[in-house]
Amino acid sequence: MLVTPASNRSNHYTASIFAVMTGLLLAGLGYFNHYILVAFPLVAAVYWYIRRRTKRRMTVIKAPFPEEWEHGLQTHVDFFLALDETQRQRFRNLIKVFLDEVPITGVRTDVDELCRVLVAASAVIPIFGFDDWEYSRLGEILIYPGAFDDDYRTDDEADPNTLGMVGVNHLSGVMILSKPSLIAGFANSKDKRNVGIHEFAHLVDKADGAVDGLPAGIPRDVVHPWIEWVGGELKRPVNGNDHIDDYAFTNEAEYFAVLTEYFFEAPEVLARRDPETYKMMEAMYRQNTRALLSRSLLRRPKRVGRNAPCPCGSGKKYKRCCRSGRKIGLPVAT
């Protein structure tokens, strides 16, 4: 999503080549019919069309980072606090580009700046280890006032138990997130749960065209061990007392997404309990989250306990609200 001097030069070169080719084509056709030469402004249009996104991103990156966004990152996102200043600036730039390009719409709820920056942080954290990443299949993010059912309803007649979803069929390219659950995901960075990161993990997985638990760009030496490991995990009985959330055992895609939450929320626990799995996740995301988060001296000391009021504002205990009854992920098209 970021523009580097090298990518800017490459984009300028590509735009120039296509513009010149268009000009030569028009000149050749104009030799036989001089009326075609009136279309010569098309040369500039071709150049502009190819350059437009790169130039807009350069403008967006140069713009000041809003104080409200900075405050949101400083007070809610431990991953951001663990970065050095150079890395933080890169994180801010990714936030700016993401929020400029992806519309975030509230459905019967307000989308404030904290909500926007937490959505963007959810998008940036999983791909922060990649040099060049595009969420090319994401067109819009809908923010719901609470959990919803399989028909995307939140009314009293519905049975809302879904906290987030990446849409399929007519909602392809749309992500839906429960606003309270999004905020709760950043309220306790040690509970292995973050619905925003979970849903963007599905998009990382989907980048190669298939949501199968094998993300795009997975190292070749990790593919076979990962397939074997996940296959074995999905076959074993689940007793509810595992260090991995039970929802992971739904299918391969959910296992990858749940492990992604675990990897970014409690990497030191994952590395201690299952070092081989941690190494595979580290290779897939190209990040050593255990080392990153362990060296942070600016971690927010306040945590939401299991028996504390849920930060979503429901009045329920955290363990019985946004931590329980969750259903997140990608629905299977029928």
What would your notes on this structure say?
It is a single chain. With 334 residues, the chain is mainly alpha-helical. 51% of the residues lie in helices and 5% in strands. It has helices at residues 5-32, 42-62, 67-76, 78-81, 85-101, 113-127, 179-187, 195-206, 220-235, 252-265, 267-273, 275-285, 289-294, and strands spanning 104-106, 140-144, 164-166, 174-178, 328-329. The chain has a 5-stranded mixed β-sheet with strand order 1-2-4-3-5. Helix 6 (113-127) crosses helix 8 (195-206) and helix 11 (267-273) packs across helix 12. The longest helix is centred in the N-terminal third of the chain and has 28 residues, at 5-32. The mean pLDDT is 87.
Mean pLDDT: 87
Number of separate strands: 5
Largest sheet: 5 strands, mixed
| Fraction of residues in β-strands | 5-15%
Number of helices: 13
Span from first to last CA?
Answer: 33 Å
Order of helices and strands: HHHHHEHEEEHHHHHHHE
User: For the largest beta sheet, what order do the strands appear in spatially?
Assistant: 1-2-4-3-5
Q: What Rg is obtained from the alpha carbons, in whole angstroms? A: 23 Å
Query: What structural category arises from helix and sheet content?
Result: mainly alpha
Global morphology: globular
